[in-house]
Amino acid sequence: TIGAAFVAKVLSVGDQTVTLGIWVRRGQTLTPSPPDLTDSSSFQRAKFWVNELQNCEEGCRIYLCGTKSDLLEEDRRKRGVDFHDVQDYADEIKAELFETSSKTGQSVDELFQKVAEDYVHFTAFQVMTEEKGVDLGQRSGAYFYSCCHH
């Protein structure tokens, strides 16, 4: 990454406070970029990365965020990604869909609020359904995660 910054965003969900850790990237990176609503090829790349993510992290929550919505406000003909195609895909993969603009801030707060709400509700659900305690030595699936490497 050419440049990156870490930002903490504090949100309220009911009577709870959630702090989201957000990495803000600038420049070119090797990691996936959000789909650009003015670039049809970016939607195809996003679909590839969603598939990769689902193969590695089954059951994860996905938030599909199209960027540069401010350019569409200026001129609807700039849209390179059909809204209905993206909505159909989001429905298919059970993702939340947001069309955002880092320039104007459109839908950015709504996206973060949804992530925070889902985190609180998912965590509460896990607490109610999972056994107390975690066996850190237990190996599960094809991957083994641990806090320490020897």
TrEMBL record:
Signal peptide: none annotated. PROSITE patterns: RAB (PS51419). InterPro entries: P-loop_NTPase, Small_GTPase. SUPFAM superfamilies: P-loop containing nucleoside triphosphate hydrolases. SMART domains: RAB. The keyword GTP-binding applies. It comes from the Eukaryota. GO terms for molecular function: GTP binding; GTPase activity. Keywords: GTP-binding, Nucleotide-binding. Pfam families: Ras. The keyword Nucleotide-binding applies. Belongs to the small GTPase superfamily. Rab family. PANTHER family: PTHR47978. This is RAB24 protein. It comes from Sagittarius serpentarius. The gene is Rab24.
